[in-house]
Amino acid sequence: MPAADAGAIAVAAARQAQLTKPAGSLGRLEEIALFMAGWSGREIPALDHLQGIVFAGNHGVAAKGVSAYPPEVTVQMVGNFHQGGAAINALARTCGAHLTIVPIDLHRPTQDISGAPAMSEEECLTALNAGAGAVDPRADLLFVGEMGIGNTTPAAALCAQAFGGGGADWAGRGTGLDAPGVARKVAVVDEALALHGADIRDPFDALRRLGGREIAAMAGAIVASRGMRIPVLLDGFIACASIAPIAAAEPDITAHCMAAHCSAEGGHARLLAHLGLAPLLHLAMRLGEGSGAAVAAQLVRSALAAHAEMATFAQAEVAGAL
Ligand SMILES: O=C(O)c1ccc[n+]([C@@H]2O[C@H](COP(=O)([O-])O)[C@@H](O)[C@H]2O)c1
Ligand SMILES: Cc1cc2nc[nH]c2cc1C
């Protein structure tokens, strides 16, 4: 897998040091500019092609009463995405993202993970490839998000499998479950782990048994982006959980990723800590759809604008540090 361009980072850092501000005073905006320099290979990175992808899938485990909403909302929200009426449509418009909607076999939910593998090998591979194939090679930044009623349950199971712990450590309220609902969800995650845990051989097998189509697709998109040196803004709990199986085996896989935000979903902060990612925002969001990533994309724009447009001390004839 390609690494960031250390030469471009060094040149961009030298530029940062000359801009008219106390050294380091733009804080994480400076880090973002250097991160983008590393993955674009340019001293002054552009953000001309921002792509957002929302993958959608349905989950057999939703029949177990693990969501506050019915599964038909998934296909209905995909309709809303196509009509431009969802939160992500508004947020993508305002951050200047081109939005790609990728529903995957919505008429065919995965199997309930507490009783069977979610997908066959072929189904999981198809979903991974759908994710990889949705990435626009011209993108200079990608954000990934999802829609799938019930998907915080497989996401919790993937986290537990990757980083240890059980349902109680990783299952949260999702779309707004009450306490008995969360207790059901904890039990379902633990059943899935008991059924599959010992058989899981590798990250692909974890995604196949415990994941879902939109989850595997996000993993495919994240890995494909790395191959193309496209940096990625990860959205919430489910988007981050998609890469957990691979990250547990190969921590460097998220080197081209930034965590857009820490969602209100209980396990997300813990998951980000395991991934070694410091979220850009804490907004108590828990929507999914790539919505937190679209908001964070505005920060990337701000970071790159300052990096590209500020005068140097010499240009502005401002005295440097003592
Ligand atoms: O992004 C998050 O952190 C997040 C947290 C909670 C819920 N969601 C969204 O809500 C759905 C999953 O919640 P649930 O309760 O149906 O498992 C799915 O469509 C996600 O996009 C998303
Ligand atoms: C309405 C609705 C919109 C969503 N977007 C992402 N997950 C969602 C879940 C629901 C219920």
From TrEMBL:
One of its GO terms (molecular function) is nicotinate-nucleotide-dimethylbenzimidazole phosphoribosyltransferase activity. Pfam families: DBI_PRT. Keywords: Cobalamin biosynthesis, Glycosyltransferase, Transferase. GO terms for biological process: cobalamin biosynthetic process. The active site is at 289 (proton acceptor). The keyword Secreted does not apply. InterPro entries: Nict_dMeBzImd_PRibTrfase, Nict_dMeBzImd_PRibTrfase_bact, Nict_dMeBzImd_PRibTrfase_N, Nict_dMeBzImd_PRibTrfase_sf. Its EC number is 2.4.2.21. It catalyses: 5,6-dimethylbenzimidazole + nicotinate beta-D-ribonucleotide = alpha-ribazole 5'-phosphate + nicotinate + H(+). It comes from the Bacteria. Pathway: Nucleoside biosynthesis; alpha-ribazole biosynthesis; alpha-ribazole from 5,6-dimethylbenzimidazole: step 1/2. The keyword Transferase applies. Catalyzes the synthesis of alpha-ribazole-5'-phosphate from nicotinate mononucleotide (NAMN) and 5,6-dimethylbenzimidazole (DMB). Belongs to the CobT family. This is Nicotinate-nucleotide--dimethylbenzimidazole phosphoribosyltransferase. It comes from Novosphingobium sediminicola.
